[in-house]
Every structure is written in structure tokens, then in C-alpha cells.
Amino acid sequence: MKNSTALLAKNISKTFYISEDSHNTVKHRLFNLFNPPRKKKVSALKMTSFEINKGECVGLLGRNGCGKSTLVKLLAGVYPTDTGYVKINGSTMLMNLGVGMSHELTARENIYVSGSVLGLKIKEIDAIFDTIIDFAELRDFVDTKIKYFSSGMVARLGFSIAVNAGADIMFLDEIFAVGDMKFQEKAIKVFESSWIEGKTVVLVSHSMDVIRKYCSRAGFMKNGEMVYFGDTEKAIELYMADNQ
Amino acid sequence: MSSTVLRDWNNRSNKIERIWLLAKIEFKLRYYENKLGLLWALLKPISEIFIFYVAFEIVLKQGVPNFVSFLFIALIMWNFFVESTAGTIQILNAKKYLYEYTNMNKLEIYLSTILSNCIGFFFNLSLFLIYFQFLDNGTAELSLKSLYIIPIFINLVVFSLAFSLILSNIYVLAKDITQIWLVITGVGFWLSPILFKLELFRKALPGVDYLNPISGIIINARNVILYNKNPEWDLMAFGWVYSSFLLFLGLILLNKIGSKAAEKL
């Protein structure tokens, strides 16, 4: 892998086998040794290869259920691939409606855990701690367990951690739906204030404006297949045609 | 040369810091969430010692010298093993938030949990040593041989980590492993030389000191701490081979099954 490459996906595919019966206990498995569960095969992602360079913002387009989220999880290293391989150069963070936070922990603890998981040292987290709290507007709830937070507060904290701590490669899955209108404006402002510049980002969005504005390249997916990967305008065109 | 490489790796990576941070938070969650705090950790072995003392020394008159110390050291070892195995079967489910959104190495989750259990163990061990050295009459003094407790305890940690890996990965496929393991540890308790004199145990259950991984640990821990003797070397060597094999098996399972935990759980 070249040094300028952030992410390399080679011949990756993913198939899920969805079982109709629940064979998830030792007892059930023993009693049904000669009666294996019926499994439904779902090809969530068909064979695909591509490369994302460091500092590039790539968009992913496609209708619901086309495999965008599966692809993102494979690229982030959350799911293992069935075939091929994904080479990741650095830490990854997947962000959709939330990021990985424990509801049993306080906002402070979650910031330290998330920051550390994203590859930061404690001293580095100390330095950005106040920025994260202030951006999330949670100054009065620093030592409250987030299980007592409203869903909007949790989402704001997640967004703030992602924006301020950030991994080497960020996967943003419909993140502009977070928080109230005021917070959304703030989130967009962060993006526009060059946050995205110089970062490797894979952006999943149904908003053409967002994709057009930030992405230098984009992929269009349909039925688990990467139909097109390249020019953003062309990908948008294909997506619009698919929605007709 | 190797120390430079190690220092360089440590400077660039935050792995050690992260494992320690997760261990501290885990420890805090376990013991500081209730008012009694760390006392709970001590209350368990104390109540067990009380019950077994009444049963085996007062009622059955087994006649083990310094029975409280004899029990205490065995129980803290056994409880560490049970907490690190039964308590972690659902770890991939409980700690899903750590690996569901990032490419964090799952092994770090296990290491931090076992490290948090080690903190509890050291607390119990310190109290045991205070009791043994200053309060229990007629016992041998602690000596340099007592330092063999370090490799013995590390062996226990490897066993616990191995079982934790094996069980929690089986859990991904079979949820009732929790109940099955409860039965196994229930039987395992009585098939360990926790309560009985070693001679009686070996006579009645020949070979179990090798088969049951915790037996060897308890026998050797008593040898080096209570009796000022060397560990039984063959038992200790066997324990290391046994635990290394189980750890290898556990790591294979983590690689095969654990890697799919995000989609299966």
C-alpha cells in the first residue's frame, strides 16, 4: 500500500446468512444436530475494489438497503470481509446517529474512553476536553451518566467527540440529522470551517448538496453492488436517475 | 536495542494507557457504584471463610492447621478465577460500544477487564498477607520463597484470560454457556483442594490436581506462602503448558468467532 493511501479495499464482499430459527443455545444445537437451521442468504455487498487517498472526502450514494452501511462497517474494520481484504492506514471511527459510548459512564469518562480508543493519549484528551464539552453544550452535565441524557444530548456529545478528537479516517453516516436546528447549523459550520480539509472522510448522505459540496469523488451503489465510483456529478446523476 | 524499540512503540502508541484507563473505569464501576465500595470485595471471602470454618473445623473437625489462612489464600485465587471467567462471558456484548464504531483490537477489552480484576485481587491479597503475617499464630514466616507467588499468580491470570476468551466467544454462538459455566464452576469448586487437606484430596481424586487447572495454582500458592516451601515444579510447569495451550485456543476463537461479534450479537 502506498503511503498516500488511507484505505485500500481489494475484492471485498459480504454475505449475511439470516437464520429463520433461533439456534443460539447449546441445547438447541444439540437437539437439532441433524436438522440444521434454514438460512436465508443475503448478498449485502458484491465483489468490489477501490482505493481512498489520504485527505480525500469520498461520498457514498444509494437508496435504502443498497449496502452503504455494510460497506462502511467493512471499511471501518467493524465487520470482517468474506473475501478479499481491507487495508486501513490508521484509526477509524464510524459515526451514524451515535458513536461508541457506554450509557453506564459519565460524559467525562466517555470522552476519555472514546478519545483513547481513537488513538489519543491522555494528555492530548486533557487538552481538548473543554472544547469537546463546550461544543456539545454540556458544561453542567460533565459528571452525569449519559443514560440520564436526552437522545439529543447524547448525539451532541458524540458529534463533539468525533469533530474534536477524530480518527485518522472518519466514516460519517447521515450525521447532519443530529440535534436540534441550532446544533445542526453549528455542525455544518464546523464542516465549512475547513474541518473536513485534510481529513480522510467517507460521507454517506441522501443530501445531494452535502455530497456535491464536500466530496471530490463519490460512489453509487445499487442492490449491494458498487455500480459507479469516480466523478461526484456522475454518481449524483446515476442516483437521481435511480430515484425516478 | 530492544528497550529502545519498546520505548519508541510505547511513545507512539497509546495502547498501555488505554488498557489502564479502561481497567480503572471498570474497577470504579464495579466497586464504587454502591455505598460499601471496596468492602464488598472483601466481604465475599470473609463470609465464605466464616461458613466453611463452621462447617469444616467446628462441625466436621477436619483438623487443618491455620484453617483460616489455608482457606483465605485459596478462596481469593478461586474467586479471581470465577470473576474473570463467569463475569466476562458476556463481555463482547457488554463492551460492544468499544468495537462497534472503531477498529479497536478486541483483545485490549479482555486485558483491561482482567487488569481491573487484578486490582481487586491485590487488595484481597494485601489483607490476607496482613492477617497471615501479624494475626495468625503458629504459621511460617513469609520468606523469599513467597515471591514464587508472582509466577503462580501470572499463571492464574493466563488461565483466566484463556477461559474468558473461550467462553465469551462460545457465547456469541450459544447464549446458554453462561448457565453451563455456572454448573462447571460449581462442580469445580468441590473438585479443587480449597477446603480439603491435600493428602485426602489426592487420595480420593487422583489426577484431578492436574486436570483441574486451578488445583495446581492453589496447591503451589499454599506451598510458597503458608509452608515456606518451593512450588511443586512439575505441577507448575504443567500449569504453564496447559494455560498456554488454552490461551492459544482462545486467541484462535477470538480471531474466528469474535471478529464477527459486531454482526452476530
From TrEMBL, chain A:
Keywords: ATP-binding, Nucleotide-binding, Transport
Cellular component annotations (GO), alphabetically ordered: membrane
InterPro entries in the cross-refs: AAA+_ATPase (IPR003593), ABC_transporter-like_ATP-bd (IPR003439), ABC_transpr_TagH-like (IPR015860), Bact_Polysacc_Export_ATP-bd (IPR050683), P-loop_NTPase (IPR027417)
Keyword set includes Acetylation: no
GO molecular function, one term: ATP binding
Name the UniProt record assigns to this protein: ABC-2 type transport system ATP-binding protein
Gene3D superfamilies: P-loop containing nucleotide triphosphate hydrolases
ABC transporter domain residues: 28-244
Organism expressing this protein natively: Lacibacter cauensis
Keyword Nucleotide-binding: yes
Lineage: Bacteria, Pseudomonadati, Bacteroidota, Chitinophagia, Chitinophagales
Family per similarity comment: Belongs to the ABC transporter superfamily.
Automatic annotation (TrEMBL), chain B:
InterPro entries for the chain: ABC2_TM, ABC2_TM_bact-type
Topology term for the membrane: Multi-pass membrane protein
Alphabetic keyword roster: Cell inner membrane, Cell membrane, Membrane, Transmembrane, Transmembrane helix, Transport
The keyword Transport belongs to this UniProt entry's keyword annotation: yes
Any one Pfam family match given in the protein's UniProt record, by short name: ABC2_membrane
Record field: transmembrane: 36-56, 68-89, 109-134, 146-167, 179-196, 235-254
PROSITE patterns assigned to the protein according to its UniProt record, in alphabetical order: ABC_TM2 (PS51012)
Domain ABC transmembrane type-2 as annotated: residue spans: 36-257
Cellular-component GO terms for this entry: plasma membrane
Tagged with keyword Magnesium: no
One GO-annotated biological process of the protein: lipopolysaccharide transport
GO molecular function, one term: ABC-type transporter activity
Compartments, as annotated in UniProt: Cell inner membrane; Cell membrane
Family: Belongs to the ABC-2 integral membrane protein family.
Name of the protein described by the UniProt record: Transport permease protein
